[in-house]
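Teaching assistant here, posting this on the class forum so everyone can see the example we discussed in section. The complex has four components, and the goal was to see what a joint structure prediction looks like when all of them are supplied at once.
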Amino acid sequence: MCAIVGIYGNNNAARLASVALFAMQHRGQEATGISSSCDGKIYTKKDSGLVSEVFTDEALQYLKGNMAIGHNRYSTAGSDSILDAQPVFAKYKLGEMSIVHNGNLINKEEVRNELIDKGAIFQTGMDTENLIHLIAKSSKDRLRDRIKEALNKTVGAYCFIVQSRSKQFVIRDRYGIRPLSLGKLKSGGYIVASETCAFDLVDADFIRDVNPGEMLIFSENNEQPESIQLFEPEYRPCAFEYVYFARPDSVIDGKNVYITRENMGKTLAKNDANKDLKVDMVVPVPDSGVPAALGYAAQSGVPFELGIIRNHYVGRTFIEPTQEMRNLKVRMKLSPMKSLIAGKSLLVIDDSIVRGTTSKRIVKMLKDAGAKEVHFRVASPEIKFPCYYGIDTPNQEELISFKMTKEEVCKYIEADSLEYLSIEDLRNSIGADRNYALESFDGDYFVTK
Amino acid sequence: MCAIVGIYGNNNAARLASVALFAMQHRGQEATGISSSCDGKIYTKKDSGLVSEVFTDEALQYLKGNMAIGHNRYSTAGSDSILDAQPVFAKYKLGEMSIVHNGNLINKEEVRNELIDKGAIFQTGMDTENLIHLIAKSSKDRLRDRIKEALNKTVGAYCFIVQSRSKQFVIRDRYGIRPLSLGKLKSGGYIVASETCAFDLVDADFIRDVNPGEMLIFSENNEQPESIQLFEPEYRPCAFEYVYFARPDSVIDGKNVYITRENMGKTLAKNDANKDLKVDMVVPVPDSGVPAALGYAAQSGVPFELGIIRNHYVGRTFIEPTQEMRNLKVRMKLSPMKSLIAGKSLLVIDDSIVRGTTSKRIVKMLKDAGAKEVHFRVASPEIKFPCYYGIDTPNQEELISFKMTKEEVCKYIEADSLEYLSIEDLRNSIGADRNYALESFDGDYFVTK
Amino acid sequence: MCAIVGIYGNNNAARLASVALFAMQHRGQEATGISSSCDGKIYTKKDSGLVSEVFTDEALQYLKGNMAIGHNRYSTAGSDSILDAQPVFAKYKLGEMSIVHNGNLINKEEVRNELIDKGAIFQTGMDTENLIHLIAKSSKDRLRDRIKEALNKTVGAYCFIVQSRSKQFVIRDRYGIRPLSLGKLKSGGYIVASETCAFDLVDADFIRDVNPGEMLIFSENNEQPESIQLFEPEYRPCAFEYVYFARPDSVIDGKNVYITRENMGKTLAKNDANKDLKVDMVVPVPDSGVPAALGYAAQSGVPFELGIIRNHYVGRTFIEPTQEMRNLKVRMKLSPMKSLIAGKSLLVIDDSIVRGTTSKRIVKMLKDAGAKEVHFRVASPEIKFPCYYGIDTPNQEELISFKMTKEEVCKYIEADSLEYLSIEDLRNSIGADRNYALESFDGDYFVTK
Amino acid sequence: MCAIVGIYGNNNAARLASVALFAMQHRGQEATGISSSCDGKIYTKKDSGLVSEVFTDEALQYLKGNMAIGHNRYSTAGSDSILDAQPVFAKYKLGEMSIVHNGNLINKEEVRNELIDKGAIFQTGMDTENLIHLIAKSSKDRLRDRIKEALNKTVGAYCFIVQSRSKQFVIRDRYGIRPLSLGKLKSGGYIVASETCAFDLVDADFIRDVNPGEMLIFSENNEQPESIQLFEPEYRPCAFEYVYFARPDSVIDGKNVYITRENMGKTLAKNDANKDLKVDMVVPVPDSGVPAALGYAAQSGVPFELGIIRNHYVGRTFIEPTQEMRNLKVRMKLSPMKSLIAGKSLLVIDDSIVRGTTSKRIVKMLKDAGAKEVHFRVASPEIKFPCYYGIDTPNQEELISFKMTKEEVCKYIEADSLEYLSIEDLRNSIGADRNYALESFDGDYFVTK
């Protein structure tokens, strides 16, 4: 999970890119970067930290030019935040290029080993370096052909933007797993971004999603971006974007994320309808469980209540609690609304259960606060398989639903009942017209080397 | 608006005080400080910044002892964040003391001038300095009597905690305008805090509110705090705490804040019931408008929807938008949920309208996003008078309801309709059993010099 | 030891004050501050850190007005760098004032207790607060008379600058213990500063030293500062300024510090002349021992060599050396010039010996580097008494010359011989025309309460 | 100009490397970095800033293992301090390696273009990347043979240390232009460092200089480093190290830097001996001119005086002086000792003149301070050619001695006389037994592609 953006044909390119990255900060808070191009030179500024910290006025003034690409990096274990920040810049035979990437290349190691065998060096752990090498090593004359050739050797879930000194090449894999949309800036030029929530902030009109397998080329020669269909599309957008990642006000593949989440909640309610379940209120785990909880409440008629308060001041560094204050860390982020829930039966909704530890703590916190019963509902199916398509999931052994049945998980988290969406439910909640990437739930790793 | 806390009789006093201040960060983000007492010496650490930034492990280790008082300072125009941070420490005739204060002394200038006439000096603009001077100048032998004498000369809305080298004196004004509650720490000792949400985080049981006009004295001699009724109580808790300031999970004067806010929304809905008002959804201005919007939705049956998304990454410093990006600042904090609201009639609920500029921008943002109608509802009465009892309100000339009728405000913010709670509605929503401080709404400045 | 400065009648007052403080950074690196006055208001900015860190352009723009006072604070054990920074500001009966102070009031506790008895409070440990209280409590109508009255109750070594909203009052104690000089700015107006090295940097011409017991008053009414002789002068400038504190390019009481230090070295050489001492080179302990070593070399004919190199990159925070790297800390600051000194007999000159630990380490370091003999010479007499007149010396028990004879010290530091200046030598080296404050050497605490 | 260090076979490897880099901070203050190897993995930490800032305890704990290499980077125009920091890490066919480099490759562009032609990419502007590519592309099986092959294509002045997961390879070019010495750590293992001043601080004994054209290999298999003579040596150590770069306590090629500088000063004095030159004192431009000035004084009998004081508090950021304070920037670093020099004839010694602007300002400053005459002496020959062997010199057009004769320079800097060392003088001062790299003086670019 990361965010990418490209701005083309606007004199405020870097500034608009930074605003778009700001709107997509939820997709990555570890590091951020922007490359602009101006007069045949590429300027890059990247660093660890939030968008609002890295892109000072001074930084934005350095990033001259009317085109820019940008990236927000999600924190993953073992990565070096400064060295692994994007864009990745390189000088190569045709000049200079800079690349941003969102996704995961599943044949990364094979390509890497093959390249290394031929004498290539890799300075980071990022798979973005693969693409750069493949482009640089291509024997084609034009960058577009080099990119094509490179992509022929690249398997995975990816969205790339390659910026040369005067052009931008936008590519989305044939499955369209990771989202990518095209918009028109009211102040001139185009924007391509991982999520449409970025369009609103930079005052851009949504044109369409970038098609699976499509390459868009922005250049001075053409008023409109050139479109080349590189690969036969087999559209499989990632279901997890709807479940958890995307901002609720984004629209992915024509579907508003918030509404799909409400649908998930409604479906959970329908599934509970014929049960003899008596609960006093529907309580979301904030913030991600809120739309599903609203859907559940609307469908079931059970009142929706903010029974858990989220504290937004939790920073990155704070006092390590002593032994006496063990459960402090959870409670510093989430607080139970005691007066509201004491003596009540709660229907608690979260977007997903990964390891089960957080769910367990939430149930305990609510019961400690006096809840009579806690019925846990999950607005997604059981996660039994790790994702290799761009999402940072733990090893399969750490996935609680790989190790336990639903009944065992229910007991482990000490809930009074536990229900998930079925895979079919999830598909229907998002929209039955489409095949989705569901590998975390069904283990169908359809992207094969 | 500020937060204060006192911890007495616990070896982790400063650490617990910092956690309590963290839970009350919403009451002040400008500066924070703690004084502890140990072996006859008072230790103080205060600085500008958030609780999680100021109270590093090193700072907490410096703050030795089993008693501590703390303060979060709200940013007010013209104040110097470092110099005006609390606690305020002083050496005086009986030794050392340190004071925290939440509130506002309305006879501050008179007392100050009188003291200055007699040769006193004032090093800051804080009214806390007044009390220190009055205590120091008293001729009484015991600190408790000096405090009493000082309070006899002090008029206003206040909560003080005075810490000497071995005792803590907690005082709430006779009207109980600012909240202050007493709790028992499960790990030993007592806590006094502005809001009960702090109790949950430090694992304390609520005992009772500190009474209006009461002085509590914590000392080694007594297992339980000694209680002295200094003044005849005339209980008038501040209505604004329920409307806006307090965290929803706090309980003030026996009333859960979240529930009173839901009641306010329900009352707005009842008032709208006999009107011929057709709206598609109830939309809160996040985060403070959410409970009232839930109440309105529950009462009216109109669906509740998160039509406005709040971005929590807005930091203190970010790029100043250029002319082309004028409305960026509002939208960086709040985003409309376009797909949800386009073509819809919205019933938007905010907690209050002060100057009207934010409300105007919100209405415009929603209409730009396609809303057909925006009916604005305010979960409090019209604010016509500045508050002198501890809340940072602008001059009367800047209060839109001082200058305009309801109809004029509705036109100014370009809403399709506008309704407030009446003062009576507000009182009933919180609880008809009590007289509240409502001076911002009715101009009844009952605390007189 | 601290530095103070006053600028009067120049539109760049705060900027010039910051430059003067920068020139006097050697007198205090812990904290720094400036108060300016403009249109009846006093502006203050103070913080911990170096002058170049605290006085950003933003800070200097805030410090409006054509008069300013400033202060550099020396780090002393137990002080809180932010709270004890100067200037100290206060509102009092006649309005506002701000004060900077260099020195030490020896009747501080008595005055403080008396003031506290009468109801005064003290918020810091600084003796500057004493003067403010005394001024504020005076019954006189004019500030100058209040200051006079306050000084009548003040005993010690002091230089004060009191700034009101339109005037500056400069006072030096009757003994002139701490230095203070008056200059004329080429860009207009006046400067008063602890050391004349500040004059060079701000382009000012030295006029004269402020006289012992004199008060200078700068005001709009008078082109020239008004001079009032408050006390009968008994001039006793501090010998330690010449020995160690002052920058070598400063002129104190008409004597260039560098030249007096050369004289001290010459005297040491004369004292050694009739001994049968064979050394190969004179080596200073950098930087403070350099002028005396040059004097010794010039007088004796023994070559001067930089046998010890000083590393100027030693910052405030660095790796704590492990057990294996014990002596690292000294050597990170000072390195022996091995090739130069190996097998040689050295005459090492330092300005003073306080506790003896540094001298011991230096001798060891030189011997480890191969020095055959190390003859230690000290360009001051034995320090047997703590200073109470503004210098941060340790307790008498820690002064090695209080506990040991010269022979014992020589043995302790493992030098081959050890010589000090006699008190008479020191007086003659600075200038026999004057009586000096020599209390650290002779115990003559002539400033009595 | 940069510094490199390698530590092999010591459990405190990274810590010792950081201490050695601290001792060589004068060779580069822009950025610093260390790579350690442990259990088959290479750990790297690098950042902009001083050694004492970057290498916190946390950083050093991360850098596990018993071998480490480190680098200090000198600031050069146009470089990105973070991206261009060293060591440079890469994964390649044989595993992982990390490299540090001091010097300059003069065939950098040719090699780069050739590599790029074959499909290589370059992510930075550092010539270190060249070597990594050449090593990675070599077809040899062993790293030592790959390095050899890579060096066969590499022309320039260089010192490299290549660290694999278990070995270190140290290489110095055949001319030995940049210094590199081998030492034995008293706490176990070996150190290789640019300057011997690092040995003193880490408690190491100097063994010998790394030979020109030599490769040293440290591995577990051998107690002693293996030595391979890769190239026929043609020893030409850089004269500029003696003139300016190296710390005075370092020994390069058997010659103590301080003593060679004294010799330069003595030679200047001998050259002046038969002139009718009457000066009152020898004044060094601190700090680099001090040893030569001591030599001049010793030879001539003219007294040595510190007529210019250097302020060591000059930080990286400070107030930009206004127009009125134009000459402030020079004077903030250097102050004239007015009382000492007023009315006197000075013989001022600096190590070199590059552009002439600083010399001009120094002469003006001294004359403004009252100096009667300023005779300028330069302890090196006229710099007429830019250096391509690792020293950051300006373009030839900016070199004042390229554009002007000695007489013209003298007039330009407004000195009363000006003398340089001849090239022969310089060679003799350092040691006539050796041929030096003197290209900046004589234009003999002996390292040819």
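For the discussion questions: Residues 316-321 of chain A have pLDDT under 50 and may be disordered. The two ends of chain A are 21 Å apart (CA to CA). Think about how each of these relates to the inputs above.
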